[in-house]
Amino acid sequence: MKVYKPKNRLTAKQYIDGVLNGDRVILSRAITIIESNLESDKILAKQIIQAILPHAGNSMRIGVTGVPGVGKSTFIEAFGKYLTTLNHKVAILSIDPSSQRSKGSILGDKTRMEDLSHNDKAYIRPSASGDTLGGVANKTGETMLLCEAAGFDIVLIETVGVGQSETAVHGMTDFFLLLMLAGAGDELQGIKKGIMEMADMVVINKADGDNIKKSEMARLQYQNALHIFPQPESGWTPVVTKASSTKNTGIDSVWDEVLKYKDLVDQNGYFAKNRNQQNIKWMYNNINEELKQLFYGSPAIKNTLAELETDVVSSKISPVKAAQSIIESFKKSI
Amino acid sequence: MKVYKPKNRLTAKQYIDGVLNGDRVILSRAITIIESNLESDKILAKQIIQAILPHAGNSMRIGVTGVPGVGKSTFIEAFGKYLTTLNHKVAILSIDPSSQRSKGSILGDKTRMEDLSHNDKAYIRPSASGDTLGGVANKTGETMLLCEAAGFDIVLIETVGVGQSETAVHGMTDFFLLLMLAGAGDELQGIKKGIMEMADMVVINKADGDNIKKSEMARLQYQNALHIFPQPESGWTPVVTKASSTKNTGIDSVWDEVLKYKDLVDQNGYFAKNRNQQNIKWMYNNINEELKQLFYGSPAIKNTLAELETDVVSSKISPVKAAQSIIESFKKSI
After folding, report:
1. What is the ipTM of this complex?
2. How far is CA B139 from CA B42, B135, B172, in A?
């Protein structure tokens, strides 16, 4: 692992004040601290989070998912722009731990959301990278808090592909939006029952031109499919609509549904209940990260691990036994 | 969490002897012990693994991936059948932690691999479920060892969808096979550069009927795409071929390539080196699971966690502070 020297770090107070004042440059730099793996930055990050926490939480948190090719970026660009015209401040974060080896997709991300990236009322931050989904999710969660403290009242968290990251995003948002295409087929879209079940709303995207008829059919089909599922705990009945991100149709009704949802869950108490459960989960995520830190951060453990690696390679000890023995010595060490 | 009473457990010796004798019924029951979350079963599982370990490792471990809809099950059925005609004993395992909420896909899995499931020389075991990919991967890895000890000389590990499970499967296999379709497009197939990079072989599936021409074009295209990547550490140049699982064409050449690969990596030492690295990784997976067990298994921790959950919900303490405080008391407790 390379060791980078932190340069140009501000004081905790400077980061905190900057974020609370809505200073976008300092917000970006504070997020860099959150994402950093340096020990000194981790301490700084905790100070910042602890201080901004009372000022966070006041946004509508919306998760957006769908397989690659569904037009997620274009949708988020259109949706984000619409929200800014209503005078909302929109932060757009993404979570994508899937391609850990080369970090990034075949298609570059540079050209995405061209318009929105120049919009004062929007803030776009791509995914932090990391070794574990838990770690990445923690960082995205804390980034969300910083954005809220900086005055963004809508946070869109985008997730890429089909897998565990949907569960992570669902676990940190208030409303979960699934984008789909007409006619592409359930199977090829990789839409699992589990992801359908999480959706508060399904939007059939690219419903324009020749595609409108097919999209309406798909809408009815998914609306029926959603009836199979038991009523969600929120009391909300998931809706399916059509939209065209390029023709800018159906975008406003997405926000209308979000507002209807918010009214309902405010009244029936689910909004607060869900946030509470998410906080508990967040506590557990933090515990797991701290636990690893406690273990792998110990110099004695580091030395023993180096020896055990050699012994495992030379087949002196099995990986299972090696694990047991180091856990035993960890127990004694603290 | 419900507590299930284990019924009809055998002794460790009975499991070990049964597995080593290639008794399929006992193999299945031993895998159930590996997958169990009961404390008593965990101890039993460790005894079994420790005992069979010297008899494991003698198989060719092949990972198979590709998005849903690519025809993975049909391919594995055709490939598995072909291998049994060469007198190999083939174990087929799967790893799929993606749909944790409802456990399972929209399409049932019951009808998959009808033929192979009645074949003496084949053994099919679906994925263990679990809360973490690390946990599921550990269990699949140990299941693989049991299958090897029971005499299976080829293990196919199938992974579902696009995400972190590919990395996990790549991390426990010798050869990594990526199935793709002609004309479906990179984007919709959700194939990330990171997954392409891991592939030792790409098979364009469903290369039959009207699809043959398109498949040959796709083959050339992917073969060219693979040239972009740096030469893998194995020294192997990844190949792209066509196959039809339903017409049974191109299936034999998949195995031919695996054998060529095996020859190369046996000679240049990469096979052993890769297995060593995987063993080290396996040690770390085990350490992480044991560490969690040490923490969450402690009665004092359990009590404190219950209190902290209440405090987090009533906003008496932030999730971050709560995590810090329990880690502090954990340090003192052991």
Report:
1. 0.72
2. 11, 6, 11
